[in-house]
Amino acid sequence: MEGRSRRQLSERSVLVAALALLGGALLVRGVIAANGDFYWDDLILVGRGSSNGLFSADLLLRDHDGHFMPAAFFVAAITTKLAPLQWVWPAVTLVAMQAAAGLAVLRLLRLLLGARPALLAVFAFYLFSPLTLPSFAWWAAALNSLPMQFALAWVAGDALLLARTGRCRYAASGVIVFALSLAFFEKSVLVPFVAFAVVALCARIDGRSRPVRTVLRAGRALWIPCAALLGCWTVLYLTIVESRPMFAHLSGVPGLIWHTTALGLFPAAVGGPLRWDRWPPSPPWASPPGALVWLALAVVVVAVAAACYYKRGAVAVWLGVAGYVAVCEAAMIVTRSSDGTAYELGQTLRYVADAAVIIAIALALTVRAPMRAGVTVPRPAADPRARTIAVAALVVVFTIGSVVSSVSFQRAWRNNPTTDYLANARVALATHRDVPLLDEPVSIWVLLPVAYPSNMVSSVFDALPDRPEFTTSTPQLRKLDDSGRMVEAVVTWTRAIPQGPEPDCGFRVPAGAPGQDAPVTELPLDGPLLNWGWTAQLNYFADRDGTIEVGLPDGAPVEVAVAAGLNQVFVRVAGRGYHLAVQPRTPGLSLCIGAGPIGTVTPTQDPA
Predict the structure, then answer these.
(1) Distance between CA 439 and CA 445 in Å, rounded?
(2) Fewest beta carbons within 10 Å, which of 76, 146, 340, 351?
(3) CA–CA distance from 157 to each of 112, 201, 215, 230, 454 (Å)?
(4) Would you report the helix, strand and coil content of the chain in percent, each value rounded to 5?
(5) Are 477 and 489 in contact (CB under 8 A)?
């Protein structure tokens, strides 16, 4: 009875220590989240969340650069509506999702190992591993990765419990979590396959005969609904997502694999990379010292080889890990590689972040596995006390390296031009609400033009309550500069509307006959315009207040308000061609339009 009491106390102590580890890891991650801010795709999610209803198809059923992630859009929309462009709620979601993923991993490890001290070492690896750090700090990436990490651990745990107890509630729980994870990230299609592998490997390690057939039969209440769900989801995914795998740019595959694995995954697996580099606006990437790269490679190879030599079933376990990593890297290559892809893409680690859960499972299965028959363990390793001290030392070294890597990452991550841009823009927009603001792209340091139309100020700042109206025309030209401050602006003379033929008028834009639409007047340009978004400066005299339509030949016309008298208006038009088409829409309205530029908007550096 006394021994049993001590054992229960020991188990309780292990669980308390595990929760303490979780609290420490959340503290580290919480500091990183609190000092973070919106970055790149975050603003795309914010813009779509602010301009669409929570349950609208335009929000939920979107192809986001090859991702199908309705639940991620839903969460982003809720946080945007609660506090537009305020980082507090995204930071809260980051910590909450990380806590949920940590608890799911702890649950799975307890099912695999029981509440014994070895659990703490494996759990510490998952919690502090820098492998998951980049996909945690970047909110848009975390909305994909963290729900999947939770699902990988939770569904595997449900599959184990279903096999052990036969209770269908675990099948129901597993299917629900799998469905939710698919709604956050399409890569979650791997979740049931990982769950099946965990249960089958566990059965094999435990010495059961025909483990695959046994697991198929014992878990059919989970596998059949998951297969049906996966089939339905695949049809929906292929219907909505237009992006397809790319196999035309495979010359850089060896380089991408090397950088992802040797410079990213292996150093992170031993607590590295210690250093991170960054060229804004790109995200940070692992930049480990050369010595750490070769040390990590040696440690991983020796550790896996030792596990396979001493532990029964470990070969299958670590082959499974290698296969999972290979699938992750293959998905990265066929969806993100191109002629201009930098090898540093793999060093950002976000494409292999979920492998942290898989490695933790593999470590737990290796610990669970019995020794191979006839294998002699060296005397120091056979001493339980020496083994405990060695493992504790390794955990301490790993944790210290991980914290150093986290601090280094935080320094690189804080070098984010978006932070100051958004802070300055919020103040500038609230201060200058008197005049409509021409809808222009935000700074290229915040979002590049490839993100169009999500890179427009009307998308990024639509949710703000205190702001000017974003329009396609304005009587006073201002813009947000690269720092987010409001400045006066001018139109560059890319092309020009020349002085027209009528003296004291230029180009006459006549009114229509009574009861008829006004004719379209074509204002010639001094050269062709390529297909792009342009701004035209119209210097005009109008005989009355009214509206006109302005557009390029193959672009949609925009409606522009004009005021009686001599004035100017700045109009944003899209398209290409040799002339600008103008048509009065107000009955009786006629105008004279003089020479003026058409081009892009550039700041004058004078504050507005």
Answers:
(1) 17
(2) 340
(3) 9, 13, 14, 19, 40
(4) 55, 15, 30
(5) yes
Q: What is the pLDDT of residues 97-132, one digit of tens each?
A: 999 999 999 999 999 999 889 999 999 999 999 999
Q: For residues 214 and 203, what is the distance between their CA atoms, to the nearest angstrom?
A: 9
- Residue 607 pLDDT exceeds 80: no
Q: What pairs with residue 537 in β-bridges? A: 570
Specify burial of residue 335 (Cβ count, 10 A radius: 0-12, 13-18, 19+).
middle
Res 238 pLDDT > 90: yes
- Which position has the token pair 């001590």? 6
Question: DSSP label at 508?
Answer: E
CB 277 within 8 A of CB 284: yes
How far is residue 504 CA from its own chain's centroid?
57
State the angle between helix axes of 139-165 and 88-113 in degrees (0 to 180), rounded to the nearest 10: 30
Q: What is the mean pLDDT of residues 234-246?
A: 86
Kindly indicate the confidence band of residue 4, based on its pLDDT and cuts at 50, 70 and 90: very low
Q: Calculate the dihedral angle through the C-alpha atoms of 473, 477, 482, 483, rounding to the nearest 10 degrees.
A: -120
Nearest to 182 by CA among 259, 68, 33: 68
Q: Quick: pLDDT tens for 289-309.
A: 999 999 999 999 999 999 999
- State which amino acid sits at residue 51: S
Whole-structure pTM value: 0.92
Identify the residue whose tokens are 């530029």.
Answer: 597
